[in-house]
Amino acid sequence: METTLRLPSRFVARFLGVFGPIFVLGCSGMDAHHSGGGTTTEGPSSEPVAAIDHDALLVVNGGDSTISVIDTAADEVVSTIQLSDASFPHHLYLSPDASQMVLAVPGMDLSMGHSTSGHAGHGVKGAVMLLDAATGATLRAGVLDAMNHNAIFSPDGAEIWTSQMTASGTVLVLDAKTLEVEDTIEVGAQPAEVTFSADGAYAFVANGGSASVTVIDAATKQVVSTIDVEENPVGAWQGANGMAYVDNESAESLSAIDTMTLEVTHTYDLGFMPGMAALGPDDQIWVTDAENGRVVFFPASGGEPTGEIAVGAGAHAIAFNDDGSTAYISNQMEDTVSIIDLMTASVVTTISVGAKPNGLLWRVK
């Protein structure tokens, strides 16, 4: 049974057990707001749910500004975190210690793709929300000068990195406790997803407007390389095999980057616009095909597809459980999540969630 705890949009939140007044941090690129005791007067906030005490899949629903919590033992939605003043939330990441989550709020619907036209300017402001990983309560939130695509913790958990999708693209490095801007790094045009290499040494930024990936030394914050890929890259999705797989939407291709040599080793000609790519527990590359509602498999070493599974319209994000037995696909145009058994390579059930689900986060209890 699904239960939703709904509180007034201006709710009183608890932050680490300490109650205090709202304050605003004046810093370049962001105004940060702490919902630690007073009422939040601006910026996004959340209505927390009962503490999650089970293995869960969290689903970001961009169309209705909610996060569905799925109990993965029962395969059902058990609670829903309601967001306020959060237009089109998008992608959710867990802190290294699993105590917090960070959510990006771009302020624009990205469910039909990431065409670079219209992403620069127009006064769209993004936001970052720091949430309690057990309840979804807002610990802190900040409004950005421009729309972002995701927000992600640094490997040590001390920072949060987020893009600014402007024509003169930048990445902001925020203090993970205060959300104050610590560094601003110039990258390519209209940067989208920021990811970190498996070893934590580099940040990879897909520049949708300049067909490139910027590689940044995570410690020094210096750009070490700019790698040419193909038209309209969205994310450099990291694999445990030391490769990053870049989904080039307009080119309908996937660029494989060796994260040690920082070179493109091979390119997959997909023949469809990719939604996302991930290295699966089966050592295959999983690529979602939104238009045809499927996930397609490719060998990690390059080459032609080895198979596919029909899921749902608008297939987008990919997540795996901790033992690698189950995969999850969000279907943005059907408001569902498909659950795939890797042993049988088949969909075992489909769960209805909120509107236009995008990001997925697997969380162990």
Q: Which overall shape is indicated by the principal axes computed on the Cα atoms?
A: globular
- Unreliable sequence segments: 1-28, 34-41, 116-121
Rg: 19 Å
Q: How many strand segments?
A: 31
Read across the widest sheet, the strand sequence of neighbours is 1-2-10-9-8-7
Secondary structure: helix percent:
under 10%
Mean pLDDT: 88
Percent strand: over 45%
Q: Describe the biggest sheet?
A: 6 strands, antiparallel
Strand-pairing-aware structural class: mainly beta
Number of alpha- plus pi-helical segments: 0
Question: Can you give a write-up of this model?
Answer:
Helices cover 0% and strands 49% of the residues. With 365 residues, it is mainly beta. The strands form 7 sheets. Strands 1-2-10-9-8-7 form a 6-stranded antiparallel sheet, with no helix packed on it. A 5-stranded antiparallel sheet has the order 3-6-5-4-31, with no helix packed on it. It has a 4-stranded antiparallel sheet with strand order 11-12-13-14, with no helix packed on it. β7 (90-94) and β8 form a beta hairpin. It is globular and about 45 Å long.
